[in-house]
Known about the structure:
By secondary structure, the protein is α/β, with parallel strands linked by helices. It is 25% helix and 30% strand.
Amino acid sequence: MIQLTTPISEEAVKKLQVGDTVEISGYILCGRDAVLPKLLRMIEDGTASDLGVDLHGQVIFHTAVSPAGVGPTSSNKLEIESSIAPLSAAGIKLHLGKGALHPETVAALDQYNAVYAVIPPVTALLGSKTAEEKVLAFPELGMEALYLIKVDKYPAIIGAAHGRSIYEK
């Protein structure tokens, strides 16, 4: 089991391989289809620093934060998957969700030295490993707002790294 703590360094990402099992600890961002296009606009217009979180070395979990807890949503939804390349270019090192990504997205991860990890849809387990949560932006989106949460040993499997994917045939 590889232990990762945020922010994740370039060197740590370079060592990760498809199929590696990891545990993620530290502060991570949470966002899905409703908020990721808004976050991309903030990056494009230079206001992402207003969030108070450095995107470099960060993890983004494709999830909403609800009273029931957190659980992964499908990362291959258009609004989510289309955000992976630009978020990686902005410094995100690990995208956390579920489902297969298109080959173009896997290539973009490689281009920006970022990886994608799949996480089991086990909300109860993740709830016991989530220590804090805070809305960073877009509170009007409710549970789909951009959140920052503090996690302890979130389990995941590296699903795409260095141009390869566990979903390749």
